[in-house]
Amino acid sequence: MKLGDRFREAGVMKDEVEPGGMPAAPAPAGPSMSRYREEADLDEEVRATAIDPLANLKRRASEGLFARLGDQLYDASLSRKQLHTFVVRELDAVLQDEDIPLDADERHALVNEVKNDILGYGPIEQFLADDSVSEVMVNGDSAIFIERAGMIYKTEARFVSQDHLRQVIERIVTGVGRRIDESSAMVDARLPDGSRVNAIIPPLAVDGPMLTIRKFAREKLVVDDLVRNGSMSRQCADFLEACVVGKLNILIAGGTGTGKTTLLNVLSSWIPERERIVTIEDSVELQLRQEHVIRLETRPPNTEGKGEVAIRDLLKNSLRMRPDRIVVGECRGGETLDMLQAMNTGHEGSLSTVHANSARDALARLETMVLMAGMDLPVRAIREQVASAIDLIVHISRLRDGTRRVTGIDEVIGMEGETITLGDLFAFDYSAGFTEDGRFAGELKPTGIRPMFSDRLEQQGITLSADVFGDGLSVLDGGGW
Q1: pTM over cut 0.85
Q2: Taking the CB of the first residue and of the last residue of the chain, which one, N or C, has fewer CB atoms within 10 A?
Q3: Domain coverage including residue 315
Q4: Which residues have C-beta within 8 Å of that of residue 34, sequence separation ≥ 6?
Q5: Which pLDDT band holds residue 267 (cuts at 50, 70, 90)?
């Protein structure tokens, strides 16, 4: 079927299509306001048809489906599978009523697109179902980008209009009890599978609604997966397992999209089953495997600006819930002070993440975020709290080749004057160069330094083999290096 024929069947007249197959520019507007509105509507319709020649047919099919099904689309007694079957059957009937000749492939594609628009997430549904895609980035109705294997690619998929994208965003956020409108124009939410969603709309987003979805793997990653794909070495994995079981307070640091939450999930898998775990997050993402887990999630303010429950409130409440471990999805503000207090008052083995470029930067960020709590504390007191609370900082990076690697593990030794002292236990070997396919050839290697907390682990019956720290093993005593 020729493109011009598709335009005519989709409701665009012949004189609205240029010989090249694209809609002609709209005629100059006349002086009346009604004419301006008519031209604007026509321009939007022609533009949508340029993106998808069957846009009008899909619109009419959707309207016909709503007319046939009505409230049955929202019948809670129907399972998702039953609803999908019901929608597909009714769509076939609607297309027969339209009496437009489509071959089998075109009909199948059209049915899937309309079904995704009504029950799913429109043109991004295909990427959410693709296990090789780790992130979906929607830049308004003009472009959709995806991330595969750490690299970003532009796709041919598009939303028909900004209104279409807004409908999908509304469907996502209302499903988890959140809201988004002009007065609250950005929101964090999640999909049913746990994938993280961020949406921002006008007036904050100048060029139209923006949607970012960070997908979670259907299969939960385990430590063997990280070792196999080179994210960490086996020595590093054995060392971190001992630290988690030995109830050290561990902070995971890294940039956006480096895999902090994934690594946090892996570390938390080593927490013994007999312990009671409380997780605190802005939007639930952690996938702990233990049975005795209490998951807490923040709540945004309502339309009147009231009812907000922040991470700090949940953290204070968790201390009354008899936790053995507290896992905070991410420290972003004043709750950092409460987290440090909890670590220093008997809640050992706590885990959290922070955005930072290095282990040293992570300490600086902790210091800044404690000041955000509104407490007028001297800098030395804050640093003493940090040095006493945090035992280990694990730094993870997304390298230039798109891979995510643990690039450093540092022990927090203590205070030396006004400075917190760190000890490098593992470091990434950047000097190894690159492989033939452009990947970093280096791996995380031990520095040969034995950590100061080894005695604490041994008191709990955990003995670290000398092999974990590599050759040239040296012992760090109270006097320094």
Answers
A1: no
A2: C
A3: 223-475
A4: none
A5: very high
Length reported for the chain: 481
CA atoms of 160 and 57, how far apart (whole Å): 12
Structure tokens that stand for 415 in this block: 């205070």
Among 332, 293, 301, 296, which Cα is nearest to 316's?
A: 296
CA distance 83 to 75: 9
Distance CA 167, CA 192 (A): 17
pLDDT at 290 over 60: yes
- Whether 105 is in a domain gets the answer no
Average pLDDT over residues 424-437: 89
Torsion sign over Cα 32, 36, 41, 43:
positive
Q: Is residue 49 part of a domain?
A: no
Predicted confidence (pLDDT) per residue in 174-196, tens digit: 877 778 888 889 888 888 887 88
User: Would you give the distance in Å from CA 395 to the centre of its chain?
Assistant: 18
- Is 448 a domain residue? yes
List, as one string, the DSSP characters of 21-51. SSBPPPPPP-SSHHHHHHHHHHHHHHHHHHH
393 and 425 part of one domain: yes
CA 454, 347, 332, 201 torsion-angle sign: positive
Q: Are 269 and 400 in the same domain?
A: yes
Rounded CA separation 188/192 (Å): 14
Tell whether 294 and 165 lie within a shared domain.
Answer: no
**Same domain flag for 375 and 292:** yes
